Fold this sequence. Notes:
This protein is mainly alpha-helical.
Amino acid sequence: MSSKIPNSPRLSYLVKWVERGLRLRLDLALEPHGVTTPEYTALSVLRERDGLSSAQLARRVFVTAQAMNQLVIRLERRGLIRRTPSASHAKTMCTSLTAKGAALLAACDRATLPIEERALSQLSRSDAAALRRTLSTLVDSFDDRRKHEARVAKLG
């Protein structure tokens, strides 16, 4: 790929505008449920990856460890998550969704679905699928942990 700066909008500019548009709409859709976008993201991550530590959750939600600590405290106080000691690391707490958290997450999913539908409304199904694949590839290109794990696996 050429290092020449393109005449068309830069990828970083376009991605940032998409992120800003989504974030604004997510904030508005989640507000009636008493959930912030980072809290919604954390709950969504825990649905897929139960038992993460606060540090692991912070990396997946794109917030600092300190911000995640405060977020986890708020979610735990509201009964949306629970933390239990890790079986393998005495000082590590594993975080899980509660039934109340799962129910709220389902309501938030319903509230945010129209936002995603609107974002994809001008695309055909195949274009929407291609966009998801392309964005996933871009995400993977910045995931140094996965690259490291792949290199280690190749070394055997």
